Amino acid sequence: MWWLIIVLIILCFCVGLKRGGRVGIVSMVRKPKSFDEWLNYHKRLGVDKFYIRLEDTPELHDRLQGDPAITLEIGSSEDMAHNGDKSYDSIYERQRDLIRRAIKWGKREGITWLAHIDCDELIECRGNIKEAIENEIGEQKGVYNIVLDNYEAQYEKINEIGESCFKYKKLLKCNNPNSGCVSYANGKSIGRISDELMENGPHRFGYSGMHGIEITGKQMRLLHFESCDFNQYVQKYMHLAQKETKTYPFKFYNDSLKVARSDACKNNQSECMKQFEEVYSQYKIAR
Questions:
Q1: Distance between CA atoms of residues 265 and 184, nearest Å
Q2: Residue/partner pairs of 264-267 with CB below 8 Å, 24 or more apart
Q3: Is 206 in a helix, a strand, or coil?
């Protein structure tokens, strides 16, 4: 009987390869909102493996360590980047380190495609993600990267604690400067794991080979739920204000940091929250 089980496992694995291969997600996570919903959504989509670096969130340790679909790394937002930098930029360095290692892990575990997304983002496609990848590629040879355009959510109201993160009233397509999006506009990507696939920052995979092809997905996209929870939004910018003096290329970020650094947030909690609500309503509530 044992040989029959082995045959069935091999058959299932081969079917997976035929229908787009095995798919993984790599993500660095800190105090996530609606994380179970995010995880189960992508499992239903057909994602096989999750490479998670979990920072400053001890309440999730036991639960995630017990999930066979997750390779979990536990860390801290205070961890140094490889260059010893403890500034906000070290977030990106830790992300880059994680992506490099996830490519190696995925290669070892038979993952064919790897997506790098955050825990406030959902990959959207019709049906199973493996079939969607297969349909995107079609007859094209040598595709190493599928770029997903990002769409940013605006909300009906200020979300309260306990509400789902993944609701929206309006989606803004972020591929032009007048979209109204408050964060990045250059999408995220899904890379085909190979000896040539390389980490290349938070939005793309690189390729060291000669003839790799990058395509933009037509049937897949990324939904970004930036600052979906008001309380987490406030905590994020209060946290950054204590660590950073720099400015960012996003007006929403800078206006939020201005509030966090204001006298109101040092001396008057009620006025501080009022100012945060004004900024949040200006940028994140749909008109």
A1: 27
A2: 265/238, 265/241
A3: strand
Q: Domains in the chain and their CATH numbers?
A: 10-149+187-224 (3.90.550), 230-284 (no CATH)
User: Model confidence over 240-265: pLDDT tens digits?
Assistant: 898 777 788 999 999 999 999 999 99
Nearest-angstrom CA–CA distance, 216 and 149: 8
Residue 259, token pair as written in the block: 């509030």
Helical H segments across 68-120, by residue range: 89-108
74 within 8 A of 60, measured Cβ to Cβ: no
Q: What is the percent of the chain where pLDDT is above 90?
A: 80
Count CB neighbours of 209 within 10 A.
12
The region, left, alpha or beta by phi > 0 then psi within -120 to 50, assigned to residue 146 is: beta
Is the pLDDT score of 238 beyond 70?
Answer: yes
Query: Whose structure tokens read 């000896």?
Result: 195
Rounded CA separation 231/275 (Å): 13
What distances in angstroms separate CA 141 from CA 18, 151, 154, one per listed residue?
Answer: 15, 28, 38
Angle 199-212-219 (CA atoms, 0-180°, nearest 5)? Answer: 85
pTM: 0.89
Q: In what order do the strands lie in the sheet with 188-192?
A: 70-75, 49-55, 23-30, 113-116, 188-192, 143-148, 213-216
Closest CA to 42 of 146, 130, 169: 130
